[in-house]
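Before the break, one more example. Copy the sequence into your notebook; we will annotate it together after we see the structure.
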Amino acid sequence: LTPDDVHDAEVVSYVKEFQGLVDHYQIGTINLNTKIHQGPEFGHFFIMPEDNLIHLYEGTERAFINGKKVTAPPIKLGSMVMIYPKEGSMPRNNCACIVNEAWVTPEQKAAAKQWINFILEDEQQREFMAKGFRPGGDIALNDPMSKITSQYGLDPNKPGKVLNPSHIEPAVAAEIDATWTDVKRPGIVTWVVDKSGSMLGNKLEQAQEGMIQALDTMAPNNQVGFVTFDDKVNAAIPVSPLANIKFTIAEAVQSMRAGGETALYDAIKRGIEMTDSAAGEPNAIRAVVVLTDGQATGGSTRLDQIIKLASSREKPIQHFSAFEGDPLPVDIEGVVVNKNQVIGTALALNTIHDIQIFFIGIGEDADLDIGRMLSGATGADFRGVTEEDLAEALSEFSRYF
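Here is what the structure looks like once it is written out:
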C-alpha cells in the first residue's frame, strides 16, 4: 500500500460503506463481550481473535452483566462460530523481539535470544495452546493441547490467507490513522448530565473531569449537544459540530453546581428531541448518553412516555411512571410486575431517526434497572460505575461514536 491508496475514491467508498454497518463502536474486549452476552438483538457479527471466542465458551471472560463488571457465564455451546473471510485474516501476534540499537549490549542480546528459544520450546508452546493461542513453533493444531477445534467454533484449516498489517509502511499507517474520521460513521450525540443535590462533591467533580476528557477524545467529525438537569432541565446547548461547540460545552460543564431534585425523564426526552432534530448525515449514529446518580423524583415526563415497556412474559405494561416511591408497574392483564422483570422494547416517542440511549449510573443509589430498560429499548449499553471510575467511563463512552 501507498499513501495514495488511502485516498483512492474506490477505497474510500468501500470503507465508508462497511462503516455504515457499524451500530456503534466498541472500545476493548470487555465491552465486546458485554454485547455478546446481551443477546442477538444487540449484535450479530463481532470482530475478535480466536482465543476470545474460546474464553467465551469457557466462561473466563469479563463482561458487564446487569451493569456490573463480572466474570461472565459461558455462552451456549454452538451459539457462535468464527468466520474466516476469503480475503484473509489478520494474526494478533505476541511478538518476542530484540531491539537492534547501540545501547543494547551483546550480553542483553544473548539473554534475549536465550529467552526466546525457551519460549519456543514445545513445553512452553503447549501452555500457550492451552490458553487458546496458536503455537509459534512447529506443533500441529491436532495436538491434544490445541483448542483450535470445532468444539469452540474454530477451524484449524483456516484461514486460507493471512494478512499482516504490521508490514504496512509507517507512512501509510500514519495516513490511515490521520484520515480515519473521513470514513468512520459520524455521530450525533447529546450528553444529559445530572447535577441534582446528590451529585454534590466528588461525583460532580468526577463528572466534570470526565466530560472534559470525553470532549477531547470524541471523533472530530461528530456533532454534540449538552443538557444538564436537577428538578428541571437547565442548560441545553443545541447539537453542533464538535469543533464549533466544544469550548461552549466545556464552559457549561465547569460552571455546573449541584442542587435540587432529579427530573431525569424530562432531561432524557429533551436529549432525544435534540439528537433527533439535528441536521446531519443520513447514516449518522444518533445517541443520548445519560449520566445520573439517582432515581427520578420530579418532572412531568414518565418513563413509559419515553420507551415502550413489557413484562418478561412479553405482556405490555399499561402504566409505569418509574418515579422513586411510585407503585410497581402493572401489565395489560392486571398483573403487578417487579421492576427487575420489566424490559424496554422500543422508543415510545415519535422520532424521525433511530436513537440509542446509553446510561451511566453512579454509585449504589443509581437505578440500573431504569438504565437496563432504556438501553434495552434502543439497542444501547448501560453501566454502573463508582465515583472513582466515572471520569474513565465517560471518556470510554465518548469513543462509541
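The longest strand covers residues 233-241. Residues 223 and 240 are 5 Å apart (CA to CA). Try to locate both features in your own notes.
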